[in-house]
Amino acid sequence: MVERPQRAMVIFAHPDDEIGCAGTIASWIKGGTEVCFVLCTNGDKGTEDLEMPPERLAVVRAQEQRNAATSIGVQDLVMLGYPDGGLEDTQEFRGRLVKEIRRFRPQVVFTHAPITQARHTHRDHRICGAVTLDAIFPYARDPWHYAEITRAGFQPHKVGTVLLWGSDNPEVFVDISDSVELKAQAMLCHRSQFVERPNRDPNRVPGDFIREGAKRMGERGGLPYAEGFQQLDFRT
Q1: Does domain 7-233 have CATH number 3.30.420.40?
Q2: What's the pLDDT tens digit per position in 138-174?
Q3: H/E element, 184
Q4: Would strands 161-165 and 108-112 be described as parallel, antiparallel, or unpaired?
Q5: What is the pLDDT at residue 205?
Q6: Which residues, other chains included, contact 35 with Cβ-Cβ below 8 Å and sequence gap of 6+?
Q7: Paired sense of beta strands 226-233 and 76-82, if any
């Protein structure tokens, strides 16, 4: 178990990716943790519907993300607005993450596991996870990295712990028995992806796979319902 921090940040690629840690976040917010979401892309390619143009989908998914954040109590939501499928490991993208990390000053950051072997993951997920880790260390920590951000008043910050969801080998399990329904509720806010998507299995109750997945992860951690993470610690 990881100790609940005062401040936590979630950096994720697409609207709805925050579901990977939404149960933990909802539980921590109940306990008093302040949370910031940093959404990197606008999700404008996430549909099979040829009648849904990307520019309209981006508007829809932005509102869905606001609704999901509100449903679990997240008040600080940053949308960077990169196109879906367009994340790259660039100095500019890394700098935007450095600025948000220095501004919010979290003790714990959640993001995608950048490397997996058990399954292929979306390229945006891999880029987001890798750039987030680099932004945390050393770039957010050292004042002469992105000196222009330092001069603008965003002082260096040392993140203590990173929790990676989607890892092949989770080692930290968080009990979300008190928040699994909030996690499902947050997922259902992303209606374009989980409720109204044309290829959705009509025989599946939306939200059931959240409960089933949390139960399977709980079995690995000896808990009723859980989220599992790989933990990286940095010297502070």
Answers
A1: no
A2: 999 999 999 999 999 999 999 999 999 999 999 999 9
A3: helix 180-188
A4: parallel
A5: 72
A6: 7, 8, 9, 10, 25, 28, 29, 73, 74, 76
A7: unpaired
Q: Where are the alpha helices (DSSP H) in 73-179?
A: 91-104, 123-134, 147-151
| Cis ω for the linkage preceding 15 (within 30 of 0) | no
Instruction: Tell me the two tokens of residue 129.
Output: 């996870």
For the chain, what are the domain ranges?
7-233
Structure tokens at 141: 């920590």
Place of tokens 């089933």: 212
Nearest-5° Cα angle at 18, 13 to 24: 145
Element (H, E) at 78: strand 76-82
Calpha distance 83→216 (Å, rounded): 33
Per DSSP, the chain holds a count of helices (H) and strands (E) of: 8, 7
Q: Are 45 and 54 in contact (CB under 8 A)?
A: yes
User: Token digits for 73?
Assistant: 């109590």
- Residue 236: pLDDT band (50, 70, 90) is low
Total residue count of the chain as it appears in this document: 236
The tokens describing 182, both together, are: 């909030």
Question: Of 231, 86, 92, 81, which Cα lies nearest the Cα of 148?
Answer: 92
Using DSSP's 3-state secondary structure scheme, residue 70 falls into helix
Asked whether 173 and 227 are in contact (CB, 8 A), the reply is yes
Q: Per-residue pLDDT tens for 102-147?
A: 999 999 999 999 999 999 999 999 999 999 999 999 999 999 999 9
Please give the single-letter amino acid code of residue 163. L
